[in-house]
Design brief:
- The protein is built from eleven helices and 38 strands.
- With 616 residues, it is α+β, with helices and mostly antiparallel strands.
- Strands 1-9-8-7-6-3-4-5-2 form a nine-stranded antiparallel sheet, covered by helices on one side.
- Helix 9 (525-542) runs antiparallel to helix 10.
- The chain is globular.
C-alpha cells in the first residue's frame, strides 16, 4: 500500500520530501560559509550521447522507470529515453551520489539537476553529448531552495528563486541567460524592486502542485500578479510592486490563477474567488483520497481515490472536479495488483502507471470529446516479478468503533503466492509467506472514553491508525533460491509520521526450507560487523549529509552499534542478482529524512564467491 499518510503536505513539498523531516542532522561545523557563486565551472566528462529518441525542443517531462528515464512532450507523446546507469555515471564523475540527486527539468536536451550537498549545487547535463557542468553553487541550505522557491526556464533564461525559513533572510532570485554553446551568463533580475518591497512576505509560486513552481517572470505574464503570504494574510503583488489584500486563511495555498485560488486546511479543499472573496468548500479530505493534483489554468482539480474491498486489490479512481460547474466525474479506474501506483500530471496531460501483464507501464489518459481513454505510450517502467512467478493476494479490513461508528484503524496486506510450476513445495512456501505478512493488529477501542479522541479522526484533523504489509519485489536465483522483499508500515493516530521496516524472506525451492543470511555467509559475526561498518565509513566520505555523525569514524561507530543489534540470521540483508544490500532503517545511523540507508557489497566481499551458493 501507498505509505504516504500526510498527503497534501507531502505533495506540496514534493521537491523537498527527502530533506524536511524529524531529526535532521546538525551540519554547523562541517562546511564553512561560501559566497554566492554565479559563474559556471565545467566538469569534464566523456563526450558520448546517453539519450536515444527524437530531439527535445523546449521543455520535456520525465517519467521514471526503475532502470530508465522516459522523456515526453507537453502533449504526452514519448520523445525518447536514457538509462539510469548512464546518467548515474555522469553524476559520479562529478563527485555526486546518485541517491542525492533531484532531477529538476529537461529543456532543449539539457537535464538540470540539484545536488543535495551542503549548498545548492545546480548542474547542467547535455543528454546528447554527455557533457556536464556546474551551473551555480548557491549559498543557501538545500531545504530553503524549495521551501518557497523555484527552478524555472522561461523565455531563454533560467530563474532560481531561493527563500529561507528564517524570517530575517530575504528572498533572492538568480538569473542566467542560456547560450548556444552550453554556457550560461549571469543576468540581473528585473524584479529586485518587487522582491525588496515584499521582504515581510513569502512568495507563493506553486501555480499548481504537480507541474511545479513558476518563476516571477512566468507568473506575472500568466496571471498578472503573484500571491504572497504573511502568517494567515494572503495578498497580491503586482509587477510594479503594488499590493492588494486578498483574504485571511488558515491553511496552505495549493494553486491559483488570475480568477481564484485553492487552499486546504487538512479537512477540506476550498476555492476563493478573487472578485468577491467568497470561500467555497469544494472537496472533503478523506483517507482514501491518497494523492491529488490539478491543472488550475482551466479551473479543474484532478484527484485520485483509493477504493478497497475485503479480498480484492485496490482500485484507483481518478476524478475531475470542475470548480465552475461543481461537477465531479470519474475519468479513469484501474485495478492495482501490486499495491501502489503513481499518478502525475504535466501540462494538460494525465499520466498513470498501469500494470499490463506482469509489467508496470506509463499510460496517458486522453479526453476525446468528454470520453476518456487510456493510451499506452511505450514507456515500460518496471517488471512486476511477483506476477511473473505467481500472484499477489490482497486483504484489507477496517476497525470501526462500536460506540461512535468512526473508522479508527485500517490494516492491509499484499502477500505473494508462488506458482507451483516453480517448486513442488509451493503450497508450504506460500503458507509460510502468509504467516509473515498476515496482520493481526486490532485497533478496536476498549471503552467509550476513547471516542473523544475519535472526533479528531472523524473531522480529519488527524489520520486513523494503520498497518500495511506488502511485497515489493520477488527474485529467483540459480533456479533454486526465492527472495521476497517485504515492506511494513505502521502509523499511530496523531503521529507526525509512521514507522517503516523492510525485510527479505528466503526459501529453497528444492526443499521448501526457509533460509536466512547464515545459510550463505561463511564468516564470523565480528567479520560481518566490521565489513558493513567499513562500507559505511566509505559511504560517509562520499556523502556525509545523510548520516547523523559528524565524521567518518563517528559514522562507523554508529554502524557498529546498529549492526550489533541483530544476529546474522535476522540482519537486514537483501540478496540481489549480483550483490547484497544491507539496509539501515531510519533513525539508526541517519535521520528520518534519509530513509533507508543502503550499503552494497559484492558476493565476493560477502561470501567469497562470484555466485550465490549455500555454506557447506
Amino acid at each position: 500500500m501507498n505509505k504516504r499518510r500526510i498527503v497534501f503536505i507531502t505533495l506540496l513539498l514534493s521537491m523537498s520530501i527527502s530533506l524536511i523531516a524529524c531529526g535532521t542532522k546538525n551540519n554547523k561545523s562541517k562546511h564553512p560559509t561560501q559566497k554566492d557563486t554565479t559563474t559556471s565551472t565545467t566538469a569534464t566528462t566523456k563526450a558520448e550521447s546517453i539519450y536515444t529518441g527524437k530531439p527535445i525542443k523546449g521543455e520535456g517531462y520525465i517519467l521514471h522507470g526503475k532502470n530508465v528515464r522516459f522523456v515526453v512532450d507537453k502533449n504526452g507523446e514519448k520523445l525518447g529515453e536514457f538509462s539510469v546507469s548512464d546518467i548515474n555515471k555522469i553524476y559520479e564523475e562529478n563527485g555526486m551520489d546518485p541517491e542525492e540527486i533531484y532531477e529538476l527539468k529537461i529543456y532543449d536536451g539539457i537535464l538540470y539537476v540539484n545536488y543535495y550537498d551542503s549548498f545548492d549545487s545546480i548542474y547542467a547535463i547535455d543528454l546528447n553529448s554527455g557533457k556536464s557542468q556546474k551551473l551555480a553553487t548557491l549559498d543557501k541550505d538545500t531545504r530553503d531552495l524549495y521551501s518557497h522557491g523555484y527552478f524555472d526556464i522561461y523565455n531563454g533564461k533560467i530563474y532560481i528563486g531561493v527563500s529561507s525559513y528564517d524570517e530575517n533572510t530575504p528572498f533572492k532570485e538568480y538569473v542566467f541567460t542560456i547560450n548556444d554553446d552550453f554556457t550560461y551568463t549571469p543576468a540581473q533580475s528585473k524584479f529586485d524592486k518587487v522582491i525588496s518591497s515584499a521582504k515581510d512576505y513569502k512568495f507563493i509560486v506553486n501555480l499548481d502542485a504537480y507541474n511545479g513552481y513558476g518563476s516571477l517572470a512566468r507568473i506575472f505574464d500568466d496571471v498578472g500578479f503573484v500571491l504572497a503570504e504573511n502568517k494567515n494574510d494572503i495578498i497580491k503583488i503586482f509587477p510594479d510592486g503594488k499590493k492588494e489584500n486578498v483574504t485571511e486563511i488558515e491553511g496552505i495555498v495549493y494553486a491559483y490563477n488570475k480568477d481564484c485560488m485553492v487552499y486546504y486546511d487538512y479537512s477540506n479543499i476550498y476555492s476563493v474567488n478573487f472578485d468577491d472573496g467568497k470561500k467555497t468548500s469544494v472537496l472533503t479530505i478523506t483517507d482514501n483520497i491518497d494523492e491529488y493534483a490539478n491543472i488550475y489554468a482551466n479551473n479543474k482539480i484532478y484527484y485520485a481515490v483509493e477504493k478497497h474491498t475485503d479480498n480484492h486489490p485496490t482500485f484507483l479512481s481518478i476524478h475531475e472536479l470542475d470548480l465552475t460547474t461543481k461537477s465531479d466525474c470519474e475519468i479513469y479506474t484501474s485495478t492495482l495488483e501490486h499495491g501502489y501506483y503513481t499518478f502525475e500530471m504535466h501540462e494538460n496531460t494525465i499520466f498513470c502507471k498501469h500494470i499490463i501483464d506482469d509489467e508496470y507501464r506509463w499510460i496517458r489518459i486522453d479526453n476525446n470529446d468528454g470520453v476518456y481513454q487510456a493510451i499506452d505510450i511505450d514507456c515500460p517502467a518496471e517488471k512486476v516479478y511477483a506476477l511473473t512467478y505467481g500472484k499477489l493476494v490482497y486483504n484489507y479490513k477496517e476497525s470501526v468503533c462500536p460506540y461512535c461508528g468512526t473508522i479508527v484503524g485500517t490494516t492491509s496486506s499484499t502477500a505473494f503466492q508462488l506458482d507451483d510450476k516453480y517448486s513442488k513445495h509451493a503450497a508450504s512456501i506460500n503458507e509460510k509467506i502468509n504467516e509473515h505478512l498476515a496482520c493481526t493488529l486490532d485497533f478496536m477501542p476498549t471503552s467509550k472514553d476513547e471516542c473523544e479522541h475519535h472526533e479528531e479522526i472523524k473531522d480529519k484533523k488527524i489520520f486513523c491508525n494503520s498497518y500495511d504489509s506488502s511485497v515489493e519485489d520477488v527474485l529467483i536465483l540459480n533456479n533454486q533460491f526465492l527472495f521476497i522483499d517485504c515492506s511494513f508500515y505502521e502509523y499511530g493516530s496523531g503521529a507526525a509520521h509512521g514507522m517503516v521496516n523492510d525485510k527479505q524472506l528466503i526459501f529453497d525451492l528444492n526443499t521448501g526450507e526457509e533460509l536466512n543470511p547464515t545459510n550463505f555467509y561463511p564468516g564470523t559475526r565480528d567479520d560481518l560487523d566490521e565489513l558493513i561498518a567499513k562500507k559505511v565509513e566509505e559511504d560517509f566520505n562520499r556523502n556525509p549529509n545523510k548520516y547523523f555523525a559528524e565524521d567518518a569514524q563517528g559514522a562507523k561507530y554508529n554502524a557498529l552499534e546498529s549492526v550489533g543489534y541483530y544476529s546474522i540470521s535476522e540482519a537486514p540483508i537483501f540478496f540481489k542478482e549480483d550483490k547484497i544490500i544491507y539496509k539501515f532503517a531510519p533513525y539508526s545511523v541517519g535521520p528520518w529524512a534519509s530513509g533507508f540507508i543502503e550499503i552494497e557489497l559484492s558476493y565476493e566481499e560477502f561470501c567469497g564467491k562470484k555466485t550465490l551458493t549455500q555454506v557447506d
